[in-house]
Amino acid sequence: MKRTINLGLIGFGTVGEGVVKLLKKNASVIERKSGTRVRIARICDKNPRRAGALNKYGLSRDVFTTKINEVINDDNIDIVIELIGGCEPARKYMLEAIRKGRHIVTANKALLAEHWSEIFSEADKHKVLVYIEASVCSGIPIIQSLNEGLSANKIKSILGILNGTTNYILTKMSKERMDFASALMEAKKYGFAETDASLDVNGMDAVNKLVILGSVTFGAHIKLSDVYCEGIENIMQEDIEYAYNEFGYVLKLLAILKNNGKAIDVRVHPALVPGGHLLSSVDNEYNAVYIEGDAVGEMMFFGKGAGEMPAASAVVSDIIYLSKNINNDIAGRAPYIICNSEKKLKVMNIKDIRAKYYIRISSVDRPGVLSRVSGVLGEHNVSIASVYQVAQGKPRGDVPIIMVTHIAREGDIKKALSKIDRLSMVGKKSILIRIEEPNE
Amino acid sequence: MKRTINLGLIGFGTVGEGVVKLLKKNASVIERKSGTRVRIARICDKNPRRAGALNKYGLSRDVFTTKINEVINDDNIDIVIELIGGCEPARKYMLEAIRKGRHIVTANKALLAEHWSEIFSEADKHKVLVYIEASVCSGIPIIQSLNEGLSANKIKSILGILNGTTNYILTKMSKERMDFASALMEAKKYGFAETDASLDVNGMDAVNKLVILGSVTFGAHIKLSDVYCEGIENIMQEDIEYAYNEFGYVLKLLAILKNNGKAIDVRVHPALVPGGHLLSSVDNEYNAVYIEGDAVGEMMFFGKGAGEMPAASAVVSDIIYLSKNINNDIAGRAPYIICNSEKKLKVMNIKDIRAKYYIRISSVDRPGVLSRVSGVLGEHNVSIASVYQVAQGKPRGDVPIIMVTHIAREGDIKKALSKIDRLSMVGKKSILIRIEEPNE
Q: How many CB pairs under 8 A join A and B?
């Protein structure tokens, strides 16, 4: 009862080649698990020179085309694998393929984060499945787990280290005392950052991924504009060091989603986590997702979040699952990702979040400054848990006062800091970093 | 197009009650994710007094029965949830339910580990699905991930902390310097160990779970008798301390599966892992599974491995998935767990494994002993990487020599140790603990 499943691959870059490599390398495993044969029928890339890689994998040159319609309009193709990335023309191609009744496997986080509702309603309408495991944390099966394995839970929070580039940079800054610019250069040198790493560094890559995780969790699209975002560009090495040496915190770029039952809180920003917490041990290019569900309690997924073969692992696993269902004639007869486009999610304003905070104030070295500063904080309902005053400033420099607050409202602490920054005894603008303590 | 899915629950103990509680608490989430309504039609327990818990959950007493046939033979029941545990009569009930065409959700690791092939061939024959997520690591979706999300990979190794009771005991022994007996008592006191914890402590519970993980991975039954097993009953607090203080290792009860492409290596025993490795940070009652796949690389799952609600999380997530497919009339039309009963797995003998080892030798305190001991080891192709001689013995006591070897063959090192133990200058029997360094 075995039929052959035909794949049409769009985008023959690094991940595309990884997929072809893995399909060949593990062909027998894939046949055993899918119960069918999987065949690359077509590969499309606008760059004709990429056809050169085909014979490495024993594929005939006839498989290659530069014309997208030869994939989308080919009725032999069961699954379209979209790996070109970016919103356009990927969106157009994907919607056309869906309308032609092709199932989709994609790694395209930017497209999904922006056009979630459109894609999944169109897929629903045409009874095709869109599989997206590779779009977040590569090979870590986090989408499937949130969508199915943990589906009995109300998800209370997700804390993710979702971007390998920034995690690599922060690890270098904290373990080797590099400044941001040198750590970024090193990340580029060793292939952990692209030439243009701006979407990693400014947090937008993590925002895209958080939107996907959240939208899977809530069964409705979380809009990009609903996610508060800060990158790591302005993180100073000295804050990483003070926070660790004085208070035991480790700095990570966290993607945070919390649900208190009334509103959701979604944001991406640098955050301090306790040194004893598992998330603090996730170093270098690794990713992790820490989840709290009302039944399952706390759990974590850890692994590589990028790279040719980890991404191929997710894409090919999706292909196996789809192929098995196509072969048994049931693909598309039950929905996979459910998206209710009517559902409105109430999102919390960043001013209303409550957290502990790390603050660094650059005081001109003279008595009385701590008393003034803590007075202003107190007037705004911010109370200090712990303070560290650096004994000696640089010659004629400012002397930093480092503190950690008790839980406070963000709107209040920001007002207090803007007042503090205007005090004559305070030098440069104060630094504020949110603290995230998952066990509290 | 919504129909109601009827559940028949067998076994109304802790997990059974957790399932009923979760079905009620998260009813709206469950309805949204399954696209259908899920209803408890029948609960069977041989102890009639357990019916007393029903009204807590708004269930009528008519739902309860002590007669198993009222569940198995009721043609309204779509899914039988087997939570009685143990091999018999659970096996008999499950096979009967399968033959009647009921889909199954079970948490029964002992039954699955022993009768894997029989259960899955019977399920195949009758086109029903057997879902087993709760049988290993409770709510951590490790079965689904190995079976689907990571299915494109050849799995090179699995290292699991699969038993919460022993992990709790070992954490107490290492962090609070307790001896085994006191740590076990404390585990019982705080509910992390049953009154009879023998199957936890002797490693058999972890063996059952490893058999399940391995059988899912290879698509064929790994037999219980193929798994080498040692428990933690004989672990001395002093070895935990020496291994950590002198060499930086942390002791865990590890379930290990390795595949070199020729034979598989499956075993459960105490093992030392490097203090910097993520597995070493998995403390108390938590579980973790560290996996290396040829495409995905290294990854880890972490979470609670036991307890009423974590187990209910897995059971109810399986119910949601099955209900969705039953409602769309596709349940059982594609296989879930594939079991090839013909396939023979070649299993490595423990004598042929190669590892680094921690050794403690009780020498009578006199010069020359180290030279004799290292001589014997050398004759058996075991070379020493690092040695630590305790300066002073107890008055008239033995003086321990602690060492870590380079990689050696287990058969060789055991022969050497039995020779060393017969030397006149050596006191008590030597201690041997395997070292597992996942990154090497």
A: 215
Same domain, yes or no: B27 and B112:
yes
Looking at the 3D structure of chain B, how many domains does it have?
A: 3
A195 lies in the same domain as A273: yes
Q: What single-letter amino acid sits at B326? A: I
What pLDDT score does A369 carry?
A: 87
Angle at B151 between CA B147 and CA B152, to 5 degrees: 180
Indicate if A146 and A295 belong to the same structural domain: yes
Q: What is the CATH number of the domain that holds A357?
A: 3.30.70.260
- Strands A228-229 and A155-161, sheet pairing: unpaired
**B363/A contact by beta carbon, under 8 A:** no
State pLDDT tens for residues B272-307.
999 999 999 999 999 999 999 999 999 999 999 999
Q: Tell me, yes or no, whether A165 and A40 share the same domain.
A: no
List chain A residues with CB under 8 Å of B330: 330, 333-334
Do B293 and B183 lie in one domain? The reply is yes
What pTM did the predictor assign? 0.96
pLDDT at A389: 85
pLDDT for position B2: 67
Cα(B168)–Cα(B283) distance, integer angstroms? 7
ipTM of the complex: 0.95
Q: What is the pLDDT of residue A425?
A: 85
- Which residue numbers in chain A have pLDDT < 50? 440
CB atoms within 10 A of CB B432: 15
Mutation to test the A interface, candidates B292, B313, B439, most A Cβ within 10 Å: B313
Distance CA B104, CA B7 (A): 10
Nearest-neighbour CA in chain A from B401: distance (Å): 33
**B127 has catalytic annotation:** no
Tell me which residue range forms the domain holding A374.
Answer: 350-435
A318 and A190 part of one domain: no
Please tell me the total number of residues recorded for chain A in this structure.
440
